[in-house]
Write a structure and sequence with these properties.
- It is a single chain.
- This protein is of the alpha+beta class.
- The chain has two domains: 102 residues, Nonspecific Lipid-transfer Protein, Chain A (2-Layer Sandwich); 82 residues, no CATH class.
- It is built from six helices and five strands.
- A five-stranded mixed sheet has the order 3-2-1-4-5, covered by helices on one side.
- It starts with a helix and ends with a helix.
Length: 191
């Protein structure tokens, strides 16, 4: 059930992207497997360059980092982890499909405009992008504050300086042990 919803969503985004169906049309009949976290879906390219669900062995395998699925990655100007998508299998098809997946952007205003009108849809989409950007900033700052608290105030995590100091001390100890082992070997040889 979920796999069909995901395939229909990706197909919708591909239909919204100018020229995307034209780029897929030559690969009619080729199939792909998309994996991202617990998500595992398979789809096939139709004669029209659209996607539909598929069962069986696929021509390519696409692995998407879970971080690439954050809501901020669907907006046109968002920095995203989508560049980290890994695609293996039929080289030419993989290159085209991987490129399309990296370029997919949801045109929220286009989907909202039939119900709200063009101006309201653009305003809602703009407000949504701003809200998502602010939520991302908030989450980033919150994680930074939690990390700082755990490192410096609660002593539950080692801070960067402590780790660097420990690494330096361990390196010195390793060198000392190496010199000591060399001396022991020399003493045993001349012993």
């Amino acid at each position: 059930m979920l796999d069909r919803v995901v395939v229909k969503t990706i197909d919708h985004l591909i239909r919204q992207s100018p020229g995307a169906t034209d780029r897929l049309r030559p690969y009619s009949g080729k199939s792909a497997r998309l994996r991202a976290g617990l998500l595992d879906v398979r789809f096939v390219v139709s004669d029209a360059g659209t996607l539909s669900s598929f069962e069986g062995t696929t021509d390519i395998d696409i692995s998407v980092p879970v971080g690439a699925l954050s809501p901020s990655s669907i907006y046109p100007n968002a920095k995203s982890a989508l560049r980290d998508i890994q695609v293996t299998g039929h080289a030419e098809f993989a290159e085209v499909l991987g490129g399309l997946l990296r370029e997919l952007r949801w045109d929220m205003a286009e989907d909202l405009s039939p119900w709200t009108g063009d101006i309201a849809a653009e305003r809602l989409a703009s407000a949504s992008r701003r809200a998502m950007a602010q939520a991302g900033t908030f989450a980033s700052r919150l994680m930074g504050n939690i990390g700082e608290y755990l490192s410096y105030e609660s002593d539950l995590l080692a801070g960067r300086e402590a780790v660097d100091s420990l690494t330096e001390t361990l390196d010195e100890l390793r060198e000392d042990i190496s010199r000591l082992e060399s001396r022991i070997r020399l003493i045993e040889q001349h012993g």
